[in-house]
Inverse folding.
């Protein structure tokens, strides 16, 4: 749409109302805010109830088959219940839309439009179209610079600093659905961070598929962290998800130097077996990963670590699995996201024979879950008696009158307040702990 027409829409004339439903990771949440920005800029209005919408848009994930199945069931239900008139237009956006592309219009009768992660600028045109249509071309130049996201309320804001991935791990579909890496200019990102602070957000989460691979002209990821650290009004900076092979000394030093960068890192490893890591094409060995963890902890002694683990990758033996269990114990992760391997179409691992049956995958997964619960509980109980600075996010769900938030290590803290309010930093003494939550009481700042 020409800019003049977009301005006319903003000045008064309203187009359709759009309901956006999001599935998947933080990148998808950030993309939904970006989609809302594209639409509102062009005269559309977003609503929070699908029953009041002219358009229902599902922003989707393709990382795991289960997520795609949920979306397919949801969209078929929406099509079946939209009424005889069929007035409401229904579409799919995001990674699943890119993964299956035009085939979705054939496979799901009644679906009106499909748009991939690089096609959001065409959304107004797709929504106005009367016929089924798609925009699923990948664009190596598309960073959505100049599009202001429409963010919701809260203390935390997502800021996408780069798009795409060059890693091509054998099990992962992301490079095929989000394209190659491209980074936004540092000046643009710092300006957006200032705008985020002006909107009242207290924490920024920098996002990228391999976020620490960020590089624009002479600014690397460590340089960007240093520049973000100088943004007034922002108390905390986090980032996700980094790749171990891209974690250089510039980033480690920035984590050590920058007061606002949280002492928390999600560092996916996927397996503790060198043989499986090589089969996955992860780009590092177990020894290199452990050396990186040691360097990180020397730089940031209070660092909390989380990770991703896949069990049952093709060819994984019991010895490989036990090596993964041993690695998790050695690293002593605060938290872990644990998954059974599932084949994804379009990946390099798709043609590999499944050598671990589902029952065995389930047994291995359960063993890791039990061990991680014990580990997390042990780590958290070690914090009893300490003080934490908690960024207050909301009322506690299960304790009336109490509040909940995150400490700098991204641990959930539920506490009895004195003068604390949502959106502020509260000082809390930790009095008890479980695997997932710290409990405490607000105390005066020292």
């Amino acid at each position: 749409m020409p800019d003049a027409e977009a301005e006319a829409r903003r000045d008064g004339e309203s187009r359709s109302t759009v309901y956006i439903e999001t599935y998947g990771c933080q990148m998808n949440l950030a993309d939904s805010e970006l989609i809302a920005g594209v639409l509102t800029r062009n005269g559309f209005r977003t609503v929070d109830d699908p029953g009041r919408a002219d358009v229902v848009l599902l922003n989707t994930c393709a990382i795991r088959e289960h997520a795609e199945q949920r979306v397919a069931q949801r969209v078929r239900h929406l099509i079946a219940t939209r009424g005889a008139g069929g007035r409401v237009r229904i579409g799919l956006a995001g990674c699943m839309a890119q993964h299956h592309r035009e085939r979705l219009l054939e496979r799901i009768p009644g679906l009106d439009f499909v748009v991939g992660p690089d096609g959001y600028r065409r959304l107004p045109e797709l929504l106005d179209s009367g016929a089924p249509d798609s925009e699923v071309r990948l664009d190596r130049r598309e960073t959505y610079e100049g599009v202001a996201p429409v963010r919701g309320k809260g203390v935390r804001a997502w800021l996408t600093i780069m798009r795409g991935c060059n890693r091509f791990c054998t099990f992962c579909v992301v490079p095929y659905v989000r394209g190659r890496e491209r980074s936004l200019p540092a000046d643009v990102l710092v300006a957006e961070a200032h705008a985020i602070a002006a909107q009242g957000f207290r924490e920024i989460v920098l996002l990228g598929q391999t976020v620490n691979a960020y590089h624009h002209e002479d600014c690397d990821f460590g340089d960007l962290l240093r520049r973000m650290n100088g943004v007034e009004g922002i108390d905390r900076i986090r980032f996700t998800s980094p790749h171990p092979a891209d974690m250089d000394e510039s980033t480690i030093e920035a984590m050590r130097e920058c007061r606002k960068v949280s002492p928390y890192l999600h560092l996916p490893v996927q397996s503790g077996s060198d043989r499986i890591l090589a089969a996955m094409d992860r780009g590092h060995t177990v020894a290199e990963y452990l050396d990186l963890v040691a360097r990180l902890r020397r730089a940031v002694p209070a660092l909390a670590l989380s990770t991703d683990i896949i069990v049952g990758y093709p060819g994984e033996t019991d010895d490989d699995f036990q090596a993964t269990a041993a690695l998790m114990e050695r690293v002593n992760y605060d938290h872990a996201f644990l998954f059974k391997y599932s084949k994804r179409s379009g990946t390099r691992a798709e043609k590999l024979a499944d050598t671990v049956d589902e029952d065995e995958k389930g047994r291995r997964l359960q063993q890791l879950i039990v061990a991680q619960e014990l580990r997390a509980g042990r780590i958290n109980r070690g914090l009893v008696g300490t003080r934490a600075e908690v960024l207050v996010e909301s009322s506690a769900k299960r304790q009336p009158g109490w509040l909940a938030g995150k400490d700098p290590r991204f641990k959930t803290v539920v506490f009895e307040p004195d003068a604390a309010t949502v959106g502020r930093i509260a000082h809390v003494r930790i009095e008890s702990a479980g695997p997932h939550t710290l409990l405490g009481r607000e105390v005066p700042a020292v």
DSSP finds 14 helices and 21 strands in the chain. The two ends are 56 Å apart (CA to CA). Residues 1-12 have pLDDT under 50 and may be disordered.
